[in-house]
Amino acid sequence: MNNMRWLFRTVFFAVFFLFAARACYAQPVSSADLINNATRFDAARISYEGEAIGDIMYRGNFAWVNLHDGTNAIGVWLEGDAAKTIQRTGSYQSKGDWVEVTGTFHRACIVHGGDLDIHAETVRVIKPGRPYAEKLNVRKINFALVLLVILGAVWILKQLKLK
Amino acid sequence: MILRPRVEDTRTIGYYLGKVIVGLGTVMLLPMVLGLACNEFNPALDFCIGAQISLIIGILLIKLCDTDKDLSWMQGMIVVSLSWLVAMVLGAIPMFLSGHWHSFLDACFDSMSGFATTGLTLVWDLDHLALSHNFWRHLIMFVGGQGIVIVILSLLVKGTSGAFKMYIGEARDEKILPNVVNTSRFIWLVSIIYFILGTLVLGVVGITEGMPKGSAFFHGACIFMAAFDTGGFTPQSQNILYYHSAAIEMVTIVIMILGAINFRLHYHIWMGNRREITKNIETVAFFFSVSLLFVLVAIGLNQMQAYPYASMLFRKGFYQFISGHTGTGHGTLYAPQFINDWSQLALVGLIIAMALGGAVCSTTGAIKMLRVGVVMKALFQDIKRVILPDKSIVIQKFHHIRDVFLEDHQARTALIITLAYLALYGIGSLVGMLLGYPFLSSLFESTSAAANVGLSCGITQPAMPAALKITYIFQMWAGRLEFISVFTLIGFFVAAIRGK
User: Fold this and answer.
1) Stated pTM of the model
2) ipTM, 2 dp
3) What is the CATH number of domain A29-131?
């Protein structure tokens, strides 16, 4: 009976630590953590997620994508095929895809001239981006119209004075 | 006895200020048109509102202060210093309306940073900023780099001796051509030719580095304006690191150095006088300063083992260094990396480089190479006087376009401005420390603001205290105008209050 209890406890703790370790590993690291503790994370395998912003820049069979997690953007070096899974990048016109990458973090990347970057091994789009529908701001339009009337009046006043 | 300014003084100042404001309002129409062309209707409205407010104020001032009198020295200086403050406020209106700045003070900070070609920024969510707003951020650097007042007056005014006073007031020490309006038009010509070439080169490099064509040329135009005018803004939040490209870094290094060269030297090079490059006191001083200070930075980086290979140390170290020395502020590092990865020696080397700056009559800020050269020559002269027999006559010459005999008043002027800059760097550092920031970070950020550089070690962010934002705005303004017109404005207000 004691043996059974011991076995049960051992299995329970083994499973617990396995899941806990996996949960810790899966927990994405923030850009602020990576930048402020770059030496600690250097060459570590990490998970990072953020919005793809700007342009995807293809370089041969690879590409650069910059992922912004709300605080900073960090450059991610990934395979061209993986980059193609990112459909939309963030700009004034759109919210970019929210992307999770796992890979190796470099404080000063040897391959890329000392850049702080991530070399991605896996890339996953967690949430697709969407275009922003720009609604005209009525208050701004009204204000601009009032200013236009005032500007017209000032202009006429100036012309009258000149004559 | 202090004399109270006359009504005539105020009228003349108001009249020319009005012209500058009308010019500024007209410039705002450019991003408005871009906004309409890119289907950015709300941003276009922001510029429409900004332009209309500017035009209303400008036209009213011209009407109320109508005069045909030319500017005196005092009036010219005040027009310049006031114009920069007014440009800051009016330029901040479209920025604030965009919603990308937390407060109007933050928008004013970025507006002054742009006009003064500094590059420190408090913008929020830059990566989603409209193209037209991004264009405006870089355009104000282009306008500010040449000098707001002289740029606008060279377009609006056919010829006036008052323009010369404003030209001097905007920290341009030298005329290139006999007429100051022609001089500023020449500066425009040089800038526009370089703008076309620079945008083309950066655009093509951008395309080869994987950017879409439209984006590559837009980024190229923006980066050129910021690099040539030694500003330091970029369209994306990571600054030049966004591109992960050695080619773009190399091209921007060339553009930054071109921007840090005296426009008078550009003129002589264009006229075929290439020997001037190797003879001119400014280029010689710049060469020695870059060589010596970069050795200091490299030793400092090596101490910390910041970069494992020499090539990496050079690429990262030299880029930030030359960006700081030319007063640009483009960077390929995150702000905290300066404090975490760079040793104190490397930071001190970079701070000295930022404090010295580029050439006079260029788009850089800071003490500038001519003054450094003159002060060094004066020091050598004094040492010679001590060493040589009493009866010997010591003559010190330097070459700046022509051979010049060093006179005491030149050394005195150079030393006074140098001391004023050192005081300005010190004041900002002191305010930073009073607000709880460490000494080296405070000195770094203060020097960056006052020397119109734009590199940041992390202090400049929207959450920093308002007192520090105002201090940096003052430093950017006073540093860009090189004090004289700022002191004249302060004197004008004192005379208005206490004068009889």
Assistant:
1) 0.90
2) 0.87
3) 2.40.50.140
